[in-house]
Design brief:
20% of the residues are buried. Helix content is 12%, strand content 44%. With 137 residues, it is mainly beta. The strands form three sheets. The protein has an eight-stranded antiparallel beta sheet, with no helix packed on it. A two-stranded antiparallel sheet has the order 3-4. The longest helix has 16 residues. The chain is globular and about 75 Å long.
Length: 137
Amino acid sequence: MKPHWMQACACLAMTVAAGCAFDVYHLKQLPATIESGRSVRDSFQLAKEQEVALDNSYKRTLRKGTKWTYVGTVQQGDVFRTADQILTVEASNVHEAYIDVSSDKLVGFYLPVEKAYSPLSEPVDLSIGAVVPGKNQ
């Protein structure tokens, strides 16, 4: 028979391991439905590189010249995706992301796999350059 202190240590170790939080950085996600038929917006390119600091201190860079194509609208703004770079937002997991733009500001991200919206606490001004009319995919 094992001494009681060994059993207590084993029990404590299992309790600590079971109680450890995996979700160290939480990404705020709100359910979102994307509507694609309401208003069709033109594609655009970014006139300059834009660094975006996420609320959890991770940073992403939207590259100059990246073409953003309108895919739909969520309650918070118009959603655009790109084929020119891979955009993800990161917390304890990595999520594919599209940008959400309102009044030429990046206000959040649409997460297409999760069908969710992740807002930024501070909108980021975007330097929108060339508009590409009638070329939406």
